[in-house]
Each structure stands twice: as structure tokens, then as C-alpha cells.
Amino acid sequence: MAAIALTDLPGRPCPIAAALEVVGERWALLVVREITLGATRFTDIVRGTGAPRDRIAARLKTLEAEGIVMRVPRTPHRDEYALTDAGRALRPVLAALLAWGAQHAVASDEAVPPHDHDRTTEESR
């Protein structure tokens, strides 16, 4: 992962701004969520995020270049994706966003769909 010099960031330079340069694009953390939840194939990641295929392809390339996901060759012409140590370190971020979203972003009369989000806090997978 390429480190970002704080002096290169606009506005108030801080680690939050640097982190958002890496994973702040809308689909990035959803890709990490899907891989965390067990969607390791491209088509499953696309389905889970609801994003256009080209967006997920671009995001996976970026996340791979940043050292957050890695491509795992399986059968010929079929790769899967896995989280690196840096990607797994995002699990507490996902757990915090899940809790915050359930409390503040989801309509109060709407039930949060049951997902296996416990994996967002697992130490390893």
C-alpha cells in the first residue's frame, strides 16, 4: 500500500483524510464487506453490492493496487478475491458503520435485514 503524505492532502491533513483517499469511494467498503461476508467471486461481489460490473471491476483493481484485497487464482480463467491483512484490519470500521447505520441512517420503522455481519469483527477468516 502506498502511503499518503499528509502534506499532499487538501484542507486539514489527518489520517482520516488519508484513509478516505484509499477506501472513501462509495463502493470500496461495500466490496470489502462482501468479501468479509464470504462473497469471493466477482459475480457474487457485484450481486451483493448492487453496483455496475465496471464499477466493481475498477474498485477491485484499486483495492488490489492498494494492498487491501488480493486475487487468488482458482480454476483457469476464474479468480477469487480475499482480504489482505490491511483489508481484514477494516473489519472494525465495517462493524462501526453497521452499528451507526442501523441506529442513525436506517428509517426507524424499518427492520435491519438479517445478515451475517458478525464476520465484520472476526479476527481472521
Automatic annotation (TrEMBL):
Q: Where is this region: Disordered?
A: 106-125
What keywords would UniProt list here?
DNA-binding, Transcription, Transcription regulation
Under what name is this protein listed?
Answer: HTH hxlR-type domain-containing protein
Mark out the compositionally biased spans (Basic and acidic residues): 112-125
Decide whether keyword Transcription regulation is in the record: yes
Which Pfam family would be a valid example here? HxlR
Q: Keyword Transcription regulation, does the record have it? A: yes
Every HTH hxlR-type domain range: 14-109
Checking Gene3D superfamilies in the record gives: Winged helix-like DNA-binding domain superfamily/Winged helix DNA-binding domain (1.10.10.10)
| Gene Ontology terms for molecular function | DNA binding
